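--- STAGE predict ---
source: upstream dedup step, 1 unique chain passed
mode: sequence only
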Amino acid sequence: MTFAIAIALALLLAIIAGLHAYWGRGGLWPAASEDELIATVIGNAQARRMPSPGLCLLVALAIVVTAIWPLLLIGTSGTAALRPLLLLGGFAIMAVFLLRGVAGFLPAWRRLHPLEPFASYDRRYYSPLCLLIAAGYAVLLLQGP
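--- STAGE serialize ---
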């Protein structure tokens, strides 16, 4: 079961990382314009431009690391010395996704990101997906290798 969860997390996060890299290279999907993309994936009314290519690529790289982490967690039987660091990192990643998932349902977040369709997508998809990723990490961390 943990193997399947780790693979699913790795694939899901790799896709998300790919999307961020795509946006960093100037891609617009799932929108037709930069303004529409901002309204769809950022939702902040003050945002006039997408984040810089460098920042998008940095986020993509960070998400790639989170994609690799579940595989490291399930494959560490021969590296007992690294296990505490992998667990600590896994808990940190889980906490970030948990906080982001919860934030999407808070009024303060709603005030910061009111644009549609982001506001609706965030409640229906983005925040629950973050909570699901956090739950996947929790299972891996609690089950052990």
